[in-house]
Amino acid sequence: MDRKIVYSGIQPSGALTIGNYLGALRNFPALQEAYQCIYCVVDMHAITVAQHPAQLRKRTLDLIALYMACGVDPENAILYVQSHVPEHVELAWVLNTITSVGQLNRMTQFKDKSQKQKEIYAGLLNYPVLMAADILLYQTELVPVGEDQRQHIELTRDIAERFNTRYSPTFKIPEIMAPKVGARIMSLQNPKAKMSKSDADENAYILILDEPDAIRRKIKRAVTDSEGKVVYSDSQPGVKNLLDIYASFRGISPEAAEREFASSGYGALKEGVAEAVVEGLEPVQTRYKEIREDKALLESVCKEGAQRASYLAQKTLRKVYRKVGFVQK
Ligand code: AQP
């Protein structure tokens, strides 16, 4: 029997943070046996905000290497670069014709990101339509992503249902799969905002590839509060976030993490969190260094991945083109 499809993408819009790791990347390898996993470096999404071309090229290969360092096996999962499979954009165009601008304007990510732009370009508004195309192109059933992507997955479901109703059943309706712990890691400097790789303040995030000293320094500087008690509570968002990070890296519940530090001060909490992060990232960092040096391997993974992805994408796109009334080539 065919395995169900799992699909997820990550933007090469900066070096990846532990938010990207705990919310998404870390959870990918475990799904490979039971599902046909399709993991993508979504470079077309990345250019919805300005990127430096040489840096984008480098970060795209960095990210392929990071997927592999985290345990994604390109012999099993399909690992590829979005711009190598043009069917994504072709389907996105069709989906644009059944997506309301009002709904796109209400997307939280669009509202947040557009505030930071001098001029708002159409690509930023249409980002979720391309994301819907990424997912629907492969008849995806499950999308492992962090909580910040929930609204986009709901939009994807709406678009799929609209297409299926207007034409005839074509797309599977996908579901979000967010981790129980670590689905929303917050900024270390503003624990009310999510940790983001494109944050201007480098103390706000920890990168997967940060050196141990940088990790310790950033956690030491993390914003807490003046309560002085380690309690897992919304009224202490900085402490809550540190407990979430600790619990995710140690594979325990936030409540168990809270118990471990119940009689500690913030200094001891921060030291404990820093050690958990350093230890948790060390094997990934070691594997990454080996893989990243092998450029021929990375190029062949991209090539093979794009071929496998294209084969599946074309099947769906052919169906879609026929249903909307395009004449066959
Ligand atoms: N803070 C977070 N906590 C948990 N999960 C997170 N993700 C992102 N931030 C957190 C998850 O990481 C995956 C890849 O995200 P993306 O690169 O596609 O874009 P994003 O969600 O917009 O991530 P960033 O880091 O905030 O990137 P920029 O700054 O470029 O916009 C997704 O599964 C996401 O849920």
TrEMBL record:
Q: Which InterPro entries match?
A: aa-tRNA-synth_I_CS (IPR001412), aa-tRNA-synth_Ic (IPR002305), Rossmann-like_a/b/a_fold (IPR014729), Trp-tRNA-ligase (IPR002306), Trp-tRNA-ligase_bac-type (IPR024109), Trp-tRNA_synthetase (IPR050203)
What CDD domains does the database record attribute to this sequence?
A: TrpRS_core
Which Pfam families does the record cross-reference, listed alphabetically? tRNA-synt_1b
Which terms are listed as keywords in the entry? Answer: Aminoacyl-tRNA synthetase, ATP-binding, Cytoplasm, Ligase, Nucleotide-binding, Protein biosynthesis
Q: Where along the chain is L-tryptophan bound? A: D134
CC terms in the record's Gene Ontology section: cytosol
Q: What is its EC number?
A: 6.1.1.2
Q: Where is this motif: 'KMSKS' region?
A: 194-198
Give the HAMAP family listed for this entry. Answer: Trp_tRNA_synth_B
Q: What does this protein do?
A: Catalyzes the attachment of tryptophan to tRNA(Trp).
This protein's assembly is summarised as:
Homodimer.
Which named protein is this? Answer: Tryptophan--tRNA ligase
